[in-house]
Amino acid sequence: MNHSRWKTLRERKLAAGFTEPANVTETRRDVQLSMALAKAVYDRRTELGLTQVELAARADLTQAKISRIEGSDTVPTLPLLAKLAKALDATLNIALDNDDAQVSFTGHGTDAA
């Protein structure tokens, strides 16, 4: 079964009155937030034309740590997020509203890598 069918099956179950267990819903939100952050870091890094190694050097992190963040394999702390925002010359914007999470970096206007 491919991913698109899983989503359709889940949507059909929810429409039919199926209630997802709270722990599953919470885990789903956590994963979605982690993936939103991963995409935002990747998008900003590539927008600046940086490699993972270059971003790691700017943020005083390892390339492996950047890879884990971009792969949604870790949940960064607030100090680490501050380091990333500074290294990406951007403001980190996180908007959380029920099931919706939006994460983005807004450049400070000096996008020279």
From TrEMBL:
Recorded protein name is: Helix-turn-helix transcriptional regulator
The protein's matches in Pfam families, at most eight in alphabetical order, are given as:
HTH_3
Which domain of life does the protein's organism represent?
Answer: Bacteria
The record, for InterPro entries, names: Cro/C1-type_HTH (IPR001387), Lambda_DNA-bd_dom_sf (IPR010982)
Cross-referenced CDD domains: HTH_XRE (cd00093)
**Record domain HTH cro/C1-type: where:** 41-95
Coiled coil ranges: none
